[in-house]
Structures are given as structure tokens and as C-alpha cells.
């Protein structure tokens, strides 16, 4: 039986003088750190197989608070009220049209101009993790309803980081919450040699602005086929700049294994379980030259995001599973990132 340890420290001060905390959660074998600035996961430390006393950080990010404040890369961030994209930055609900921030051309992406990742959240230390909470007011980012949000990150004895998201609104609204960590099981360098499997045979077709057309494409025999383990880089040139596509799962609300990432060089493996119906595979196509932790220069494809979520643009796609949260109902999403080392 392992012993959990949760420590807090000062991560930095914002320009308004507000103090930001960093929380580190350990089970004696591995640890992760998260800050109350955006519920952002700043590190996941895994031991080396050859030397259990030496650890590698397997997520991209920054060493200082100021870099998280200034960056739009979403390293480790919690994303809402609606992750991914909404076409034309608008949707209709109950006969009312809602206009959102146009922060991605003519479209809405990851929370618009007032992102959840840029807010300081209330924090409470748990026995094996941290819980964050915040009320997103009616009209924030353009969405209806005062939304009470609770984000919980916990670590289990068997080395799983459990991400749980709960929310309740006083008006009908739409919601889609995710974590945007960039994983690199080696701790540095390209991830194109790391192997991925995804338990899905469909992904969403998108237009030139990455807005879903509404069509689901069969993956079999294509560059998007990860039915069996395949190196991320094997077919990446066939995709254009890289993977930035949403895979589709059963909308059964049950926790299920949807993906697995493994690295032969280090012997590490990461599993992904979720109760959500989609997962955005993103191969860090647009981080070239970004200065990350300890001054390291990040390059394109130095990380991979496995963003579990509802389907993008679902408020405008009636054929997709609904992302509507009715007033008074509770939204619940869960994703487990499990690690073997």
C-alpha cells in the first residue's frame, strides 16, 4: 500500500499581485504537479527503467508562471467552456443564436479570448490530489448560464492520473471540457517514433479551417488508421502538417479504454480511458521554436495531445451526440491517464 503526499508551494505572482500556487502529488513511485492558474498540469514525473531514482518529465510546458500567462500553446491546460472548435463562432440553442469570440479566423477555439486556463481557480487539497472550482458567469465567452465547474485531479496507487470534470448551469448551455497536455514518454525530442493505438475506426472529416463537415471517415487502410500500434511518424506526411483530427467512440457514457501510447526506448506506456465520445489527436504541429522548460527549444512534433472530449462543432451538428447541458443537470466527464514504467 503506497503513501500519498500532496505539497503546495508558491509558483509565482500575477501582475495584479495575486499569488499562484503549485501542487505536487506523489504516490512514492511517480508524481504530477498542477497549478491553480488554469488547472494546468505542469509536470508528470516518471522514473527511468534503468535507474528508478532518476525521473523524466513526460509533458511539455514551462518552468515559470509568467510563461504560462503569456503563452497560447495550451501546455497542460484545462480547456472550456467548449474545447476545440465551433464553426462561425456561433450556435443556436432553444431558438436563440449565441455569438462567441472569433479567435481562430472566423471560428471559436478552446474558449475564445477569455480562456479558463488564464484564470486563478479556487483550490482544495485532497488526500491524493487537488480539486479546483470556479463559477463561469452567464455570458462569459458568449455562452448562456452561470456554470459552476469543479475539476479534480487525483493519483491512484496503480499510477493513474484521474481527471474528473463536473459542472452545473442555471440555464441550458453547451459544454465540452478537456485537458490539453502534450505528452512525450521519452521526456524530450520528437515523439514520431512513439507508437500509438486508438480503439476507433472513424474520425471526423474537416474543412480547410478544421471545422467538421459532419461526415465520419473510416480509418481502415488510411494514414489515420491506428487500430494496431503504429509509429506516429509512419504516415504523418500523408496528413499534411500532422495529425489534428478527432476520433469517434461509442457515446455510451461508460469509462472505456480508447488509446495507448508506448515508447520502446524507455519501456514506458500510457493508457487513456474515458467516458467521452471523442478524442482529438494533435501532434504539436505549431510549436516550432517555442522556448519551454529550462530553456529547451521545442520543435514541431515534440509532443502529442490525446484530448478526450465531446465532438467539435457539435452545437451546430445535429447528427453528432449532443453537447447540451440542461439547466439543473450535472455534467460529468472522466479521463484516466495510466502510466507503466
Question: Could you characterize what this model shows?
Answer:
The protein is globular and about 60 Å long. A nine-stranded antiparallel β-sheet has the order 11-12-13-14-27-23-22-17-20, with no helix packed on it. The mean pLDDT is 97. It is 2% helix and 43% strand. The chain starts with a strand and ends with a strand. It has one helix spanning 65-70, and strands at 5-13, 19-26, 31-35, 40-47, 55-57, 77-79, 85-86, 90-93, 96-99, 108-109, 122-125, 129-136, 147-155, 160-169, 173-174, 178-180, 195-198, 202-206, 212-218, 230-231, 244-248, 256-263, 268-274, 278-282, 305-309, 324-325, 330-340.
Topology:
Blueprint: E1 5-13, E2 19-26, E3 31-35, E4 40-47, E5 55-57, H1 65-70, E6 77-79, E7 85-86, E8 90-93, E9 96-99, E10 108-109, E11 122-125, E12 129-136, E13 147-155, E14 160-169, E15 173-174, E16 178-180, E17 195-198, E18 202-206, E19 212-218, E20 230-231, E21 244-248, E22 256-263, E23 268-274, E24 278-282, E25 305-309, E26 324-325, E27 330-340
- The rough form would be described as globular
Distance between the termini: 18 Å
Q: What is the element string, with H for helices and E for strands?
A: EEEEEHEEEEEEEEEEEEEEEEEEEEEE
The assigned structural class equals mainly beta
Q: Which parts are unreliable, with pLDDT below 50 for 5 consecutive residues or more? A: none
Helix content: under 10%
User: What count of helical segments does DSSP give?
Assistant: 1
How are strands sequenced across the largest beta sheet?
Answer: 11-12-13-14-27-23-22-17-20
| Percentage of residues in strands | 35-45%
What value does the Rg take, in angstroms?
19 Å
Task: Describe the main β-sheet briefly.
Answer: 9 strands, antiparallel
Could you tell me the number of beta strands? Answer: 27
Mean pLDDT: 97
Amino acid at each position: 500500500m503506497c503513501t500519498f503526499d500532496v505539497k503546495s508551494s508558491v509558483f509565482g505572482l500575477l501582475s495584479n499581485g495575486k499569488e499562484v500556487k503549485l501542487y505536487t502529488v506523489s504516490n512514492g513511485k511517480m508524481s504530477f504537479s498542477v497549478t491553480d492558474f488554469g488547472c494546468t498540469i505542469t509536470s508528470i514525473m516518471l522514473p527511468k527503467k534503468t535507474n528508478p531514482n532518476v525521473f523524466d518529465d513526460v509533458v511539455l510546458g514551462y518552468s515559470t508562471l509568467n510563461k504560462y500567462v503569456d503563452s497560447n500553446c495550451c501546455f497542460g491546460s484545462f480547456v472550456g467552456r467548449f474545447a476545440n472548435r465551433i464553426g462561425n463562432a456561433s450556435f443556436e440553442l432553444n431558438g436563440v443564436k449565441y455569438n462567441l469570440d472569433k479567435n481562430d479566423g472566423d471560428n471559436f477555439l478552446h474558449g475564445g479570448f477569455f480562456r479558463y486556463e488564464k484564470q486563478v481557480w479556487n483550490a482544495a487539497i485532497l488526500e491524493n490530489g487537488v480539486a479546483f472550482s470556479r463559477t463561469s458567469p452567464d455570458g462569459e465567452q458568449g455562452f448562456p448560464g452561470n456554470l459552476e465547474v469543479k475539476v479534480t485531479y487525483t493519483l491512484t496507487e496503480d499510477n493513474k492520473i484521474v481527471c474528473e470534470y463536473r459542472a452545473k448551469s442555471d440555464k441550458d448551455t453547451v459544454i465540452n471540457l478537456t485537458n490539453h497536455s502534450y505528452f512525450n514518454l521519452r521526456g524530450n525530442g520528437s515523439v514520431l517514433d512513439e507508437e500509438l493505438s486508438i480503439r476507433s475506426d472513424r474520425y471526423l472529416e474537416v474543412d480547410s479551417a478544421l471545422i467538421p463537415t459532419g461526415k465520419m471517415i473510416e480509418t481502415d487502410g488510411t494514414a489515420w488508421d491506428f487500430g494496431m500500434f503504429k509509429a506516429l511518424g509512419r504516415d504523418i506526411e500523408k496528413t499534411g502538417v500532422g495529425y489534428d483530427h478527432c476520433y469517434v467512440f461509442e457515446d455510451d457514457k461508460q469509462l472505456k479504454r480508447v488509446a495507448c501510447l508506448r515508447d520502446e526506448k524507455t519501456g514506458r506506456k500510457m493508457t487513456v480511458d474515458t467516458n467521452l465520445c471523442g478524442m482529438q489527436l494533435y501532434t504539436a504541429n505549431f510549436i516550432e521554436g517555442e522556448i519551454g522548460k529550462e530553456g529547451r527549444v521545442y520543435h514541431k512534433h515534440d509532443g502529442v495531445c490525446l484530448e478526450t472530449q465531446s465532438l467539435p462543432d457539435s452545437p451546430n451538428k445535429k447528427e453528432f451526440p449532443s453537447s447540451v447541458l440542461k439547466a439543473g443537470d450535472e455534467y460529468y466527464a472522466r479521463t484516466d491517464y495510466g502510466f507503466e514504467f
